[in-house]
Amino acid sequence: MAMSRAVPNLAFRRLRGQHSPAEFAAAVRRAAREIGEQVACDARYIGRVEAGEIRCPNYAYERVFLHMFPGLTLADLGFSAREAVRGRRRALTAAVPPPPAVTTRNDEESDVLRRAFMTSGTAALAAASLGLGGTAVAIPAPRGGGHRIGEAEVRAVEEAVRRIRLLDDRHGGDGLYKVAAQPLRSAYALLDAGSAARRSTEDRLYAGAGELSLSVGWLAHDSGRHEDARSHYAEALATARVSGNAALEAHAFCNTSFLARDTGRHREAVRAAQAGLRAARPLGSARLLSLLCLREAAAWACLGDRSACEEALGRAHTHFERGTADDDPEWMSFFGEPEREALEAHCWSALGDWGRAARHAHRATVLQNPHFARNLALYRAQLAGNLARAGRPDEAEAEARRVEESLAGIASARIDGLLADTRRVLATY
């Protein structure tokens, strides 16, 4: 069965105007932040839209594009109707089974899968949403005979990273960790299998594999598998060092600091945050520096050093107020005002200033977009614990109940642990 060739989206190209694809992608990311949405838009995505490869954007991109161009419809932007795209995909899927090793990318999440995942949360449905064994995203298996790695393999790795992050935002790490380990193994198998056609392709593959290792490590971290997380973070750091990727190195140290703090290795948490700062300084991202300063502040707080904590918090605020930049890493889309408030609440709770911690945790819950259900549940769980320790049990109880009522479809050992800790404190009243 012959597939029709993609038709270029000239309407979307006209809307880009004189901006470069990278500049336009940055404008899309800024517009997303304005409405509390998260999209991992880059020049390659804009190129695929304009080439007609993406006939209809997913729901997140749809909201952003309609926000950017008020009064226009998806048809005005050059996109096809969602129903037409889905119907064509179903027909193609029925007529042509996917090959065993390489599957095609599907830019539109299945409503059926998403609803099923939200109601059951099983690992099998998580695998389907990730495309592990399905048709959404799969990383091609390496081929022998000196095969040179190209664009298709690299884009598959990058898409796996984005899909895992999207699902984690909604559901937490418990249901995703084991199934997400498979694309990670595939990514590193590609690295071991042979050389890339171009140096830029090889650099992207190293970066993608490292970011995938960090994403899978975070799923392990969030689900309480701390030794697995430590191993994945170390693997990402080694990948960064081998490829000379300072951005990946800063990300790896950032995650390592967070994990070290969570597991009681507070001196290590300080050192990792400071190493991340050294790697991040040349990168031009004030928000990345702010996050690393917050990691350092939390570690000092756990050591009981209030002065060092406050000094690091001051640096974090200074960097944060410089705003976002085009050089901010994709993975930092979660780091806005709600997360900053939540991380500062961590610092004050570690120092035993429960009232101040509760104020910052409350701000995090107020500022957080309800679309990101997992983070909102986490912030509320932190707030409940701070209220309980601040001597406000009725408020803490009410907040804990709100968290429990919102956990359908969310599986996070971190949230469960926070709630259990709050219950223990409330039992003393």
Automatic annotation (TrEMBL):
It comes from the Bacteria. InterPro entries: TPR-like_helical_dom_sf. This is Transcriptional regulator.
